[in-house]
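Late entry, written up from scratch paper. The run itself happened at the end of the previous shift, but nothing got recorded in the book at the time, so transcribing now.
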Amino acid sequence: MPDRSAIVKAYDIRGVVGEQLDSEVVRDIGAAFADLLVSSGPSPTPQTMITGHDMRDSSPGLAAAFAQGVTNRGLDVISIGLASTDMLYFGSGWLDLPGAMFTASHNPARYNGIKLCRAGATPVGQDSGLEQIRLALQRGIQPGPGGGVVTERNILADYARYLRSLVDLSEIRPLRVVVDAGNGMGGYTVPAVVEGLPLQVIPLYFELDGSFPHHEANPLDPANLVDLQATVREEGADLGLALDGDADRCVAIDERGEVVSPSAITALVATRELATEPGATVIYNLITSQAVPEIVAEHGGLPVRTRVGHSFIKQRMAETGAIFGGEHSAHYYFRSFWRADSGLLAALHVLAALGEQQRPVSALMADFSRYAASGEINSTVADQQGSMEAVRERFAARDAVEFDELDGLTVRCPDGSWFNLRPSNTEPLLRLNVEARDTTAVEALRDEVLALVRGSSTATPGGRR
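Output as recorded:
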């Protein structure tokens, strides 16, 4: 019998529908999550939770099965139906209830999954509940007393109204914006959020379709941006925006059709948030451009560096009271949004900054872009630790090189260039990010590290992500 608990990952639950993920296991996960809430929740114990789901064919049925497991434990469920992940987080924060979002984000159509949170959109990760759920699946789920009920509630208008209340776009100049929803949940949420704003939205792939007929809804893969880039140039648009499948991540394209670095967007949004609270803390992860902490400090903020991953960002935001956090993976976190990530909220900040002045996006973002970067490069290796040690030994022989191991291995060179090499938690991959003063320096450092990582016959390129 296959191990059903293998679908429980470090940050969420994810697997192939019909093979790893079906109604039976999801019903048990619902019961296990309800048990977790009852055993470890605040007093009084939450009696209600909310669920939402994306547009994948399997999502409504899985959400219903999960609700059966929850109500079997005597807890009630509010179903908000179709939702983006940040809309589910909004519901969790606004209603102060635990939540479950059914989505596999940018993964292909055959996948699905569950993102869990406690009341106030507080994430549930491996160390904060997922491990208990995994163990419960291994032990087996016993029948409960029943008695819970499911009700339905549409919160789309409330979500849209709340986002618009956080960023004022009423006085910006009119803008033409191409939005590629990738047949994901952005096609549902974007029209509601932009209604009444001085924006002409040119939609690409707004039809909800979990088979992703045009391209995968993963904006970090350059192949998935080709249509958006071409449309921005053809339409003479001011800006392009690409959302992932559950619309919690957003990548921007400038008026020339060039990708805007997520680190530059992090720096831009940070300066806007710091203008409302001088001296506040801003969180950034360790593969974000060095320009981010420099710009945060120059604007009077306190930059704090973290590991990669939303649970680490949100934890440090809670510990420090940070006003904002950004990751180079195009996730952006806001204290005003219960420390949760919202691609659309970040996009509203970019639109506001653009519309408040007359320069094009390329000129605006040049203020926040200081260095060249490689992007993330994956290599499949048989021995992650051995490959990392080979890199460490090579650079340890040089003068004035600094190391840290906050997340993998980060190496800083005397000329200001740096790289981070870290292992994947779920695959036999090493992920490399390089930054330097110019493209030539990036390529030289990148090639040197990759030669070491891929030097053995068992190491092969793993592609970019």
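The radius of gyration is 22 Å.
(Scratch paper discarded after transcription.)
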